[in-house]
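Submission sheet (multi-component)
Chains listed below:
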Amino acid sequence: MKMVAAIVRPEMFNSVRAALEADGIYGMTVTEVMGRGAQKGIALRFRGKVMPVELIPKVKIEMVVPDADVDKVIRVIRENGRTGKPGDGRIFVLPVESICRVRTDQIDPADP
Amino acid sequence: MKMVAAIVRPEMFNSVRAALEADGIYGMTVTEVMGRGAQKGIALRFRGKVMPVELIPKVKIEMVVPDADVDKVIRVIRENGRTGKPGDGRIFVLPVESICRVRTDQIDPADP
Amino acid sequence: MKMVAAIVRPEMFNSVRAALEADGIYGMTVTEVMGRGAQKGIALRFRGKVMPVELIPKVKIEMVVPDADVDKVIRVIRENGRTGKPGDGRIFVLPVESICRVRTDQIDPADP
Amino acid sequence: MVDSGDTAFILICTAMVMLMTPGVGLFYGGLVRRKNLISMIALAFIAFALVSIQWVLCGYSLAFGTDIHGLIGSLEYAFLQGVGMGGDGIPDLLFAAFQMVFAGLALAIVTSGVAERIKISSFVVFGLLWTTLVYDPLAHWAWGGGWAAQLGALDFAGGTVVHISSGFSALALALVIGKRLGFGGHGMEPNNIPLALLGGALLWFGWFGFNAGSALAADGLAANAFIVTNVAAAAGALAWLCAAWVRGRPGSLGMISGAIAGLVAITPAAGFVGPMAAIPIGAVAGLVCYGALLFRVRRGLDESLDAWAIHGMGGIFGALATGMFAVAAIGGVNGLFYGNPEQLLIQVVDAVVVVAYSFGVTFAIAKAVDAVMGLRVTEEEEYVGLDIAQHGESVRV
Amino acid sequence: MVDSGDTAFILICTAMVMLMTPGVGLFYGGLVRRKNLISMIALAFIAFALVSIQWVLCGYSLAFGTDIHGLIGSLEYAFLQGVGMGGDGIPDLLFAAFQMVFAGLALAIVTSGVAERIKISSFVVFGLLWTTLVYDPLAHWAWGGGWAAQLGALDFAGGTVVHISSGFSALALALVIGKRLGFGGHGMEPNNIPLALLGGALLWFGWFGFNAGSALAADGLAANAFIVTNVAAAAGALAWLCAAWVRGRPGSLGMISGAIAGLVAITPAAGFVGPMAAIPIGAVAGLVCYGALLFRVRRGLDESLDAWAIHGMGGIFGALATGMFAVAAIGGVNGLFYGNPEQLLIQVVDAVVVVAYSFGVTFAIAKAVDAVMGLRVTEEEEYVGLDIAQHGESVRV
Amino acid sequence: MVDSGDTAFILICTAMVMLMTPGVGLFYGGLVRRKNLISMIALAFIAFALVSIQWVLCGYSLAFGTDIHGLIGSLEYAFLQGVGMGGDGIPDLLFAAFQMVFAGLALAIVTSGVAERIKISSFVVFGLLWTTLVYDPLAHWAWGGGWAAQLGALDFAGGTVVHISSGFSALALALVIGKRLGFGGHGMEPNNIPLALLGGALLWFGWFGFNAGSALAADGLAANAFIVTNVAAAAGALAWLCAAWVRGRPGSLGMISGAIAGLVAITPAAGFVGPMAAIPIGAVAGLVCYGALLFRVRRGLDESLDAWAIHGMGGIFGALATGMFAVAAIGGVNGLFYGNPEQLLIQVVDAVVVVAYSFGVTFAIAKAVDAVMGLRVTEEEEYVGLDIAQHGESVRV
Ligand SMILES: Nc1ncnc2c1ncn2[C@@H]1O[C@H](COP(=O)(O)OP(=O)(O)O)[C@@H](O)[C@H]1O
Ligand SMILES: Nc1ncnc2c1ncn2[C@@H]1O[C@H](COP(=O)(O)OP(=O)(O)O)[C@@H](O)[C@H]1O
Ligand SMILES: Nc1ncnc2c1ncn2[C@@H]1O[C@H](COP(=O)(O)OP(=O)(O)O)[C@@H](O)[C@H]1O
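Outcome: structure written.
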């Protein structure tokens, strides 16, 4: 099992989500985050103090999938989350040691 | 050290939290997330456009615990986060390579 | 590649962020979270029911960095996120198997 | 003759009372779980829109048409025919508008009892029946020349008509629709306390229109109603705050609930008591409603947002307090404390009848709607939340 | 002679209409993406502040100075000279203030067309030109003794002046500035529906001041305007809700959009039709505007927050409806349905001219500003969002 | 004789000023860190509730009872005895209510100085002492026939009484309670700018009641006060916006702070100057207060939400501006620019005394409360935030 964690543009999230569903990837956990990456920083000023706040809203999608699906998931995210401009995001793959449901007692690594 | 990441119902969070505390598991980081899992998707419509938004509010609990505690933590979450209905959530266990406090300089893998 | 996940005080986030930038660590994903750690719990009461809610706002910073940078990142966070009081936070290091951009097709493990 | 000052006052008061309905929506919306926030606000708007139409079609006439046996008004003003731009003090049309916003608000309060689980289509049907069969008769009894008015029951601004009725109707509805899934076990913390406080602020603001406007003139009586309203709200807020403090921490929701309790209790009394009486009325109302809330929680009743505890019980207390504290120098009638125990008796009779009628008829309507079309969403819809399930919308994290 | 009741009424109405401008800001702010929420609210405030200053310097005089060829007012009242504390019914200064808040609101509505992509410096320049060259003449035509008034066109509270003009100006502006990056493909869900509903509630509340206040007196006509305003809003809300229900789920944003559609449509008619006419006017407006919105989306037009669909098209429908439903018993003029087809013709002429003028002149102003200083932020700024890029602020997650 | 128009006006103005108190709460709540959001809103409500009770018990009488040596009123109106439904123009009870909401607002503004660190029990004690020992005498001096009124100092709507006093009291309080943990080093960004803007919008709205209502009649003077209020707010907003633009980006919080600065400065002047004078008054106030804020930040003073910079310094500037711009044609008195330099002198004396008195007495009260029960929460409580520590509630992420 792997956890694929993708940071994507909020605007592209819905097409990514729909495309994953079309490809049979259903389970996901989504978080609204702020991120900075390649884009240049922007310096802000509030009530007389400089505050460099160059964090921009992003959406983080976490999907735990069988090893075999990792490449497919990455491909789908890239194809549907891409605008070609800086800020499209990153995908990280992390190892997962085990996985289970809360609802039932069986630990079922084959059914994420 | 492992990171146990559990996605649970918002309504069950407080009992899970209390039960973990009772069992001596204190440190945790909690995030409000949206998730989809086994439940069927729901198609929405806003101002003329179809928007399938089947994400539902969930709570993510991340706990870094010694290897020996993983099973206990999973058991406690399941016993206290369960309603038996779809949507009860998932628990993922990820490997953690090292851990340290911000407050002190000693890197103390035995004290998460 | 490693993912360094740091939980810090919201008040210290900006200095941590600026210091990381000064040290050339640019990419990061930030989440507002609630956490509990060493601090003692606080029991609350709302409309007649006791509700122990001892979760406190924290900021989670996730940075995926080359193995060689991990120690530097940890040092910077500690030096700039520290107040010396309980609640300064934790840093966890998780292994990352692979990483890629959404924008381009090349999978580039050397460029987080 | 229409007086421009009085008309100006009631026009604005009507707008202020209108604002109370979204105020209730925001207050309730802040108290439920995030997945039902939009639903609560939407229910308030829908309640208001439905009643606005029903009122001009027939509601006004049922309430204020020529009295029929003390029970209901005739249909002579249906479609507002014969309700014109002239009038005595204020235009007749304005009086109809002022009464309309009260009716809309009452239905919005009732949504407390079905929070997070009502089917929107059923709410539409229930709402139309409720405003026609419960609210309109009650308004007639108190202000349209019905039996309560004939008996001499005092209800300056709607303590029985709006508050007792909506509070006990919410209770009846809650009993019919049943508890929320997981009620008691699951955590159901308020999702947005600042929003609830904002809603409370709009209620407090609008209540000046509600109570002072009920003088139907910009005069000394309105001024009296205005100041007693504020004093009772303040006393209620502080009393509940202190009571909660004794038991734990003084929460802001307790404070605002206490303010609303004080406002409810002073509503029937606002034109009959002075500022010094408003202090005990507001303070005791805060304590009574806090006690009622604790009682409800202990009994495991899921009248979810406490319309019963605050509007229902606060309304009863207010009706009785009016019968005790009323002083002839202000509103022309003395109460128990000024040597007229009979007035208290009349208030008791009025309150008891209104409690019984509104609880009973609402129970019957709810049962009927439930039998015909089902009041409640499916378990799955309740799980995903009414925002998505009923409205196809959601509040972002 | 100044009448204290009328003056009291218009003073408060002016404050209520002022509150509509932040209401528009909150409504729009809730509908855009999170990264532009502050920007939308700020634009509303800036629009209001700019117009407030322009109005006392010259705007009032251009609109209400002595008529020049039916087209514009003279500069005799520039700097409000000669506008004093006395007056007929209400003080002249109060009339100027009441009209000022209308002008401010109109510019705030126009920001719909440039949401999430306007450069703030260009908006300041555009806004000053627009209020001077578009709004002030239109106000003169309808209320300052211009050609439309001479022709007998009916616009009680600003259906053409405020709503048609701002709606079609938003459309022109949207065409000049171009679509948002990714429009059509990217998801652009509203970031905060409760905030939008709160904004809508403030609009509904303020609209009572807008329409009833346009009677310029606290009298029966104001009362009529008040109640028809509420009835039309309710009918519009329910009509759009039902239409959306037929196509899917009844969203709360559809409901509040329908209410605004009803409010827009009743605006020109409020002093000429009665409560029963307000039901079809409001309901049909809800359907017309919903249809216009669907049309806009289908055509891929990025008039982002639907000022055109709701204010523009709702305003046209309202102008025509006034020509149909007007009845002499209320406002002294009959419409088509009461045997005076000519009135409808006048309304058509008025609406057509206002559509053409506001669209055309706004298009020209926008082109000019774009050529001189650029209307739009850079692509990078649009990506990070105007909150950070233009204001240096951001809404926390 | 009570006039219905005047009474209608002041009744509604009183409600509008009441709404300013939650407005301050929302404004302040949006500016602090998320963990103290509820606390700031709750403090505003608590301030208002406390003062509401204190006012009817003794505050009104201390301020408006028969003058004692120009310093304080007698207790003849304690418990509002002798304050009735009759009156001259407006009912006496209404005058008491109108003044009450000013007193409540003033205490709410003061909470700026103790934001995110005050113990709620100590605030209750401090608040009661402050309103009795600071606010009531000041109100007496200016409006109750005290020495300032006798001297001829002009304060139309409370520039010295409400704004100078609350601003300098906040400063004194901030000095006694000390800086927030980590002030200077730690980031303390505003948690919810849209909420702050909403609060600002409610302040702007309510301020019409505050200033125009201070005419105590619905007449030309009220109309003048109304329009100058709006013009000054707009000018202040634009001036601060531009100044911030020069130094960086034009933030929305600067804009709304500028509007409040303009509103504060026009407060004492609203009944004495015309619309053209309101432009410089508002604009310069925006610049003065922005400068004061920068000064405070540079000096490392943790008067956390800038009541001193905006209300205190804006109030001083307004008092002086009144002495300069006043023109007899409007308020019966000329200022410096119209040949009466003496008026400016009187204004200076008044401002200086009020600054000294409010700063000094507040400092003493704060020291006393601190010595007896401790003003400040523990370090641990400050860390977890007052929402949890003081109220047992929290705002969800
Ligand atoms: N090294 C990193 N660690 C964690 N998150 C990152 C890292 N680099 C980028 N991100 C996340 O990805 C988002 C997009 O990054 P960006 O560099 O703008 O994308 P792109 O490479 O497509 O231009 C950032 O906003 C941040 O949330
Ligand atoms: N494969 C997955 N990857 C990441 N998160 C998941 C995955 N599957 C489920 N989840 C998370 O768990 C939550 C509950 O899943 P669900 O399938 O409804 O639970 P259950 O299996 O108990 O019915 C989802 O809302 C989602 O947040
Ligand atoms: N075992 C853990 N697992 C996950 N998160 C933790 C753990 N321990 C602490 N945290 C996070 O770190 C934050 C700070 O912890 P705390 O113990 O207060 O810090 P410190 O050790 O510096 O006093 C907590 O609020 C929580 O979010």
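Remark: The radius of gyration of chain C is 17 Å.
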